């Protein structure tokens, strides 16, 4: 049976009223859910960005410290008594020459030569994770003398060594002058002096153990 227009209108109004009440009851919960979901997404993104930034800094710091180790070892393989003349052979007005002798191992020419190949040594390093802080550090996994090494704490990953090599090359490119300055003369604690205080590549270098060659 067909309903009258008045009855239809009344029924429609009643249905709309019921639907509005239900929607009004649901909307606050939906808003809470949306806000909660949005908050979770934002927090996850911030944590992800923070973790990525921290991993990037760990790689740069590890590359710098490994670079120092490799440079110091390479320098130690050259006879410290072997000298080389540097300066200008041009005769000064007073008849003298601006020539001086410096150890070959720490001469600018030798240091530049070492820097050309030092980053290739990053393939000899593995990653170690500190269980208490989740920070990454990088240790040699291949002995220079061929002896076996304890690799129980190290993770070997080609992606890690590639990242370490790239970071090393970037450091050499951007901090060539600083590297030459620090290795031109024998000095202590180059890792912290160069990697933290001068270049700020390590935010936690001063609390890290001093690795042995």
Automatic annotation (TrEMBL):
InterPro entries: CNPY, DUF3456. It comes from the Eukaryota. Residues 60-202 form the DUF3456 domain. GO terms for cellular component: endoplasmic reticulum. Belongs to the canopy family. This is Canopy 2. It comes from Nothobranchius furzeri. The lineage of its organism: Eukaryota, Metazoa, Chordata, Craniata, Vertebrata. The gene is CNPY2.
């Amino acid at each position: 049976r067909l309903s009258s227009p008045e009855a239809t209108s009344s029924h429609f109004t009643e249905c709309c009223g019921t639907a509005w009440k239900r929607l009004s009851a649901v909307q606050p919960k939906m808003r809470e859910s949306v806000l909660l979901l949005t908050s979770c997404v934002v927090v996850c993104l911030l944590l992800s960005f923070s973790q990525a930034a921290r991993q990037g800094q760990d790689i740069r710091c590890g590359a710098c410290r490994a670079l120092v180790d490799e440079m110091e070892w390479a320098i130690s393989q050259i006879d410290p008594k072997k000298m080389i003349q540097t300066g200008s052979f041009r005769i000064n007005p007073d008849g003298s020459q601006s020539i001086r002798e410096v150890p070959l191992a720490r001469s600018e020419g030798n240091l530049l030569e070492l820097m050309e190949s030092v980053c290739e040594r990053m393939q000899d390093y593995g990653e170690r994770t500190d269980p208490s802080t989740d920070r990454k550090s990088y240790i040699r996994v291949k002995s220079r003398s061929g002896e076996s090494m304890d690799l129980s704490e190290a993770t070997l990953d080609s992606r890690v060594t590639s990242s370490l090599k790239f970071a090393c090359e970037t450091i050499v490119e951007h901090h060539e002058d600083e590297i030459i300055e620090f290795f031109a003369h024998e000095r202590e604690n180059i890792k912290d002096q160069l990697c933290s205080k001068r270049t700020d590549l390590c935010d936690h270098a001063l609390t890290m153990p001093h690795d042995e060659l």
